[in-house]
Amino acid sequence: MSRWLSRGKSSRLMGSDKGGHSSSVYQNVKAGLQELYKSVLLPLEQEFKFYQFYSPLLTDGDFAAKPMVMLIGQYSTGKTTFIQHLLERDYPGLRIGPEPTTDRFVAVMENDTEQVVPGNAAVVDPTKPFSQLSNFGNNFLLRFECSLLPSVILNGLTLIDTPGVLSGNKQTSRGYDFEGVIQWFAERVDLILLIFDAHKLDISDEFRRCIHALRGNDTKIRIILNKADMVSYQQLMRVYGALMWSLGKVSNQHKKKEEQARGEKKRRDKQEEEEESLSLIDIMVCRGDV
Question: Where do you find CATH 3.40.50.300 in the chain?
Answer without folding.
Answer: 63-251
